[in-house]
Amino acid sequence: MSPENALDLLTGMLWSAALVAGPVMLATLVVGLTVSVFQVATQIQEITLSYVPKIMVAGLTLIVLGPWMVAQLVGFANELYLLIPQLGQ
Asked: Please, where are the H alpha helices in 1-89?
């Protein structure tokens, strides 16, 4: 395997990971910022108020986008399996 091939595989892996993890991270970021602004505005400093909504949104995002995420990962894995004969040359 050449260094160019290894770099291409690494780049594809990182993009796939970012594409799959991005929606969950973005949703929890938006909810976290919203809850933080609410806590600052109302001066409520309850710790569970910041964690529970983020966990709920992360779970809901995984339920809604889970099939798409799995399809992305399976597609990347299929590409890797199809490359195995070429990598041995």
From this structure: 3-42, 48-87
